[in-house]
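Re: the multi-chain job from yesterday

Posting the exact lines I submitted so nobody has to dig through the queue logs.
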Amino acid sequence: MHGKSVLLIIGGGIAAYKSLELIRRLAELGVTCGAILTRAGAEFVTPLSVSALTGQKVFQDLFSLTDESEMGHIELSRAADLVVVAPATADLMGKLAGGLANDLASTTLLATDKKILMVPAMNVRMWESPSVRRSFEILKKDGVLFAGPNDGEMACGEFGPGRMAEPLEIVAAIEAALGGAKSLASPLAGVRALVTAGPTREPVDPVRFLANHSSGKQGYAIAEALVRAGAETTLISGPVSIAPPDGVKLMRVTTAREMLAACEASLPADVLVMAAAVADWRPDIAANSKIKKSTDRVVPLIKLVENPDILATLAHHAKRPRLVIGFAAETDDVVENAIAKRARKGADWIIANDVSANLNGESVMGGERNRVHLISAAGREDWPEMSKRDVGTRLAARIAAEIKGAA
Ligand code: PMT
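And the result, structure tokens for all chains:
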């Protein structure tokens, strides 16, 4: 995304405030953002706040001589890599579907030769009205991309589809659009994904085991996002207490060796995401009956042996997935260690997270939030702190851009 540019058209809706957050998120990724603010949009956010965040002049008026002398609407519509309309109101959708051009936003949308991504936001009854459905169908047929709308409670108090997608979901859709995905609704259609999640448990005896604090939340969120993106997703999970996402093929395992066997049985796959916290070692021998406390208080010694490295095994497998993604759970020198781990294990990407970090009062292992760095041959991307669900959404979009872009 770094170095790309987006022209953001902000329509008139209460969700316009989310567009300010969107501009900030894009800036963090090195994406330049120019903006057109419609007259109705300016009732919800001010030109000053948009301009302060984009660091550029905000364009508002088709007939403003100053605007036209600085940059004509034709040039404005062609300068960016992608045109994003957020919020996309019923009015803006209807105008583009009907070929109307009576203000700067609608003229720019007709004049552009770039892809258009619309992010609808409106009341549920409006969204479901026959005329908006018609506009939606026409625009989709014309190749306009859509992100959302989501289901949920709206500012007007009603519930249902019509809520604007969240800024990070829009970032993910922009990433997929810039990466060349054909359909934002199912950018990973036809792709087989294999995701591992949760801890492994290595038995000491029938009642004791070695394990770690992984809850499975990060891996499950990634699997859920991949399903949403249309991938045929197998989730291989260690013992966790959360419900599997709808639409995955779930395989439950306990030990690292079982996880490796389940992964190998699930090949071929196009993408592997190893989010599981696999135990590096296991007790040499798992006792068949409970180890008793000795009366002379001699503490039993447990000899550990190394577990197979699943990520390294699959990265060098005859049926190696096209895109192999590992995680790195680090407490020190997070990025440096992750770079070394990527080379050592033969992964294409490593998602590094600092598991000693305290995010919102919770630790990364077990908590709801994460802050990750994506390490690839191209370098590193530092993602801001976000929910594990958002990490999943964004990773799915990156995967779509990588896989479909290379297709
Ligand atoms: O489950 P949560 O509570 O949501 O927490 C998420 C998480 C912190 C567990 C997750 O984001 C994460 O970092 N997972 C990887 C944990 C880990 O085992 O990291 P590692 O640095 O020890 O291993 C590096 C990579 O090799 C990982 O992809 C791991 O799955 C893999 N590995 C490790 C050991 C082994 N024997 N086989 C492996 O495949």
